[in-house]
Amino acid sequence: MPVLVKKILTWGFVAFLIYFVAFRPDGAAQVFKGIGAALMAIFQGLGDFMTGLMS
Fold first, then answer.
1. Is 41's pLDDT higher than 90?
2. How many angstroms separate the CA atoms of 50 and 55, rounded?
3. What keywords sit in the KW lines (predicted)?
4. What is the tally of structural domains in the chain?
5. Is residue 42 part of a domain?
6. Backbone phi, then psi, for 33, in 5-degree steps?
């Protein structure tokens, strides 16, 4: 991917995040809570898997 296109997409994404957080804070909070919950579930499952291997 050309550098200019990558830069434009990156700045567009940053602008969208700022807009989303500024004008839809409740929606943004729910999205970030969902992402956090998904990451916690993944790491919990990985931890359970590793514990199962060790015992």
1. yes
2. 9
3. Membrane, Transmembrane, Transmembrane helix
4. 1
5. yes
6. -65, -40
